[in-house]
């Protein structure tokens, strides 16, 4: 029994010694290995370096993302500007192929897919194409303006060399409206001087006749003075109407809008012209339904239009004729009409009578300036309405205008 216990104790001791040796051996090897790694790889310094590198990469990425988003928003802003620009912008490469064309350029040249096409195909005008060619050859900015009668356009092209891409940038401006305004202004000045020349020449002739002895003539003297007074009145009226027209056209006349009953407007305009009509041997009547809705209008300005239309009717209707002023409901508004049984207006003149200074037959008009209808048109349009005329030559005319009901 004792020998059994002894053997067991020896075995247990050996096992415990073996475990203790394994543990110490393992720990010793691990320490040795850790020491080896530390001594060989300078471990803590590398970790710092890697950490620094990763921080640098992270901040680089942040900066890159920021720059990318700035670039994206600048790109978006640039493309919005190019899309909204009313001037055409075209980028052409060195071979004359269009790389980019903004919507305005595509609209001006009536093409929907300009990129990929050649400048010649898109521009279709040799003067404009020549400007681009000159720019390519000389590497200098070139400009050219042309009128395109078929397209009713007046275009200006500016070709700028693109030194980086050996191509060019074309800026296209539509000057049609500017040119039209220039023509209108030129015509206006020549019309005004022409209209002034006639009364001034007749004033000069009348005063010269008076100076050369007619003043003492009891018959011719007062007659010539009377004609001078008429000419001065005509000139004063023209000056007043020109002033009126320029104020209305430049938007300086502010409409004082208020609810207005159509019947009261018609009645007050007709009352103002009644005596003149009777003196001319004409019958002036009003045809106006009761209970029409109110319009929103500037009473004095609309009355000015009606008075002008009735005045014309009086001027162009022979004694014994009739004039009627009418109102009735129309599509979304009230339609006013001034109808006469006068000389009428030839069909080819109907569309022109609203132009400044236009008179059908200057010899039959007498004292007119040709500005009244033009002023009336501006006033009606400023009310959001529309004015037009219908006529049967020799049988009479009707002038209509519609004012919307709010
Ligand atoms: P004017 O001062 O010459 O009357 P308007 O602009 O009012 O100027 O009219 C332009 C021209 O339109 C007149 O000169 C005339 O030839 C023609 N016209 C206008 N109203 C009538 C009308 N009721 N009947 C015939 N012709 C008219």
Number of domain modules: 3
Count of extended strands: 12
Radius of gyration: 46 Å
Output the strand order for the largest sheet: 2-1-5-4-3
Contiguous low-pLDDT stretches (5 residues minimum) are none
What portion of residues belong to β-strands? Answer: 15-25%
How far the N terminus sits from the C terminus, by CA atoms, comes to 128 Å
Helix segment count? 12
The unique ligands bound to this protein are: adenosine-5'-diphosphate
Tell me the name of the CATH class of the largest domain. Alpha Beta
Report the CATH superfamily of the largest domain. Answer: Histidine kinase-like ATPase, C-terminal domain
Structure classification: alpha+beta
Largest sheet: 5 strands, antiparallel
Overall average residue pLDDT: 88
Helix content range: 55-70%
Question: Could you say which overall geometry the principal axes of the C-alpha atoms support?
Answer: elongated
